[in-house]
Amino acid sequence: MCKDFSGIITEKGEVLWLKEDTTDHETIIAKHGLKDADDAKIWVRFEINYKDLAKISRNRAYAVFKWDCQTLPKWAEENAVVLIANAWSAWEESRKTAVILESETVAEVKDYFVAVCLGKIEYVHGNAKIENVSDNAKIENVSDNAKIENVSDNAKIESVSDNAQIEYVYGNAQIENVSDNAQIENVYDNAQIESVYDNAQIENVYDNAQIENVYDNAQIEYVYDNAKIESVSDNAKIEYVYGNAKIESVSDNAKIESVSDNAKIEYVSDNAKIENVYDNAQIETITEFASALKDGVIYLAKKAKTRKIGKVP
What we know:
twelve-stranded mixed beta sheet; 3 helices
């Protein structure tokens, strides 16, 4: 969170800021139809940022004001005391929605921006955006086009659905369900996700992260380091499994494109398919009509007249 609160002050002393995104000067400029040629002439940018992200508060003593321009116009110099006071008033107004403190519960966040959530949110939806969910914070449902950038520490999210997006899940953070067209970019550290399903997508699962169930048409691109997935089923797809990653069960029509390094898969069953197995990767048991390919050899569990269980060496 490099910029917590961005605003623009006009020559008339008006403070321009956006409840739906408190961090972006360019969005403010576009929203109010300002001209770049007038920058630092009849209006000027400013920022108010927290001094220490470990000390989030609504008290201005924990934040600092600064002008965001190379040369301050004369009118701003002459009226600096009043203009800065106006900026602080806007910052304090923004804190009513942009910060959720540890002891607080908010029923709904819709179509506006939350810089930091340390407390509890019941529903995040619409076009809402949250930058950081941390400490022991809890969110029950993230849906619609809502977006969360960071979920960390011991934070917990119960449901991520619709077109919602989460960029980073780490620390000891937990997410119970990722569904519909929801997307998560990175799951790492000791983070845990219980279920990924429907058309949900996860790009990277690594470190010691764990996912219990991946099913329906869900997709995961990379599983590596010491990451663990318990079950991959239905039409779910995983592209790459490597490092010391482990998958316990691959079944139904699930597909894994590549298993390498020291990665391990315990059971492959039903019509599940693994395209490439190489390096020191291991697959313990292949049953039903499942198949795996290693060194140009296709390993099958069941042929036309045999039901022998296969094991990829």
